[in-house]
């Protein structure tokens, strides 16, 4: 690594660039960086200087602090795929290993918005499914979804820790072919934060997707993705109506 020298450039700025190169070029995502004490001794600077340099990189999202554990290089964010695809297929295409923790599947009467989305009658129950989705063992998303009992009878009797879209296609002959998705930001509530192994009120990206097959509603699912590991990128084209500087349209993942 480079040395820090006396000169017009502040020492904290010099150290920040050294740590930036270390995080971007030498360390794998999620790797620990040296402690404040080690960095101060290695570069002959005060711990206040170290804190300033590290703090700026944390603010940029290049480093992340874990209370009681130290400072780590941030994991690279995954781009949301703006087309209809299962989480399992999405992760496999990225070269990651997907896995699922089944939190629960029950029959319950959904709220008005979900009942309307799934075209259910008054007080008609649906399947409520909650799952934790992982990529290479790292918790990435919590899914809480409602599923039509008309389209997917006895859904709760299946192994729901597998790719749900594959299960739906293989067991019911139902191929999801259309969806409407809304995305917003939200702070993690205590239950979601615990599942995702983040602090309460950490930033999350929330996706609500209503998916159908041949015009018949099948799924109303909301997913909470870790904001430090996930992002949305969209291409905007001024030649497409409604895609001006203050509006954007995307498909579904």
From TrEMBL:
Residue span(s) of domain HTH gntR-type: 9-76
MF term (GO), any: DNA binding
Keywords, comma-separated and alphabetical: DNA-binding, Transcription, Transcription regulation
Domain of life from the UniProt record: Bacteria
Pfam families the record matches: GntR, UTRA
PANTHER family: MANNOSYL-D-GLYCERATE TRANSPORT/METABOLISM SYSTEM REPRESSOR MNGR-RELATED, MANNOSYL-D-GLYCERATE TRANSPORT_METABOLISM SYSTEM REPRESSOR MNGR-RELATED
Full protein name: GntR family transcriptional regulator
Record flagged with keyword Transcription: yes
Keyword Transcription assigned: yes
GO biological process annotation, one example: negative regulation of DNA-templated transcription
